[in-house]
User: What shape does this take?
Amino acid sequence: MPDAYIVRHCSPTLAGLKTGNMFTVKQGKETMVSDLRNVNHRITKYGLRMIPLRRNGEDVLLYLYRPERLKKDLNHPEAQRILSQKGYNIQDSEQCVAQVAEHLRTDASFPHEIGLFLSYPPEDVLGFMVHPKQGVKAVGCWKVYGDKEKAEQTFRKYDACTAIYQKAVSGGKSLEQLIVCER
Assistant: This one.
């Protein structure tokens, strides 16, 4: 999996602005296993992890995330309430990742709580879950039901980060050189 592809879809996570990103790749199973091992070998020392969440034929939904940051995000009282109501084991963030992957694979409906795994504000995740078409104040990486100004500022940061990172990787920077370590 080329660094440029990961950078295009995950720059805010690589930069430490976001807990995680999800993106889809088209790959056979053997290639995917090899690529995941390679990428994880390169990124785990920086506090990142990449896992497959769902496979649909050649399409694989991947999740690149910061496990320590995810623990903090899922510890938010509103996030815990949402996940608890959906039957998640809120005591273990890695178990929550496994559970969201299971929901993606087996549920007929999309698990909208997935936004909590992507640094979406809990109030916006809840707003979308309860009234997806009512009360939307802005749309960017997610639908905003709460603080519009803060969300729009975040959207601009993510866009700027992605542009900077894409320029850097096309200029020869490696994935490792672009990762901001939070340790």
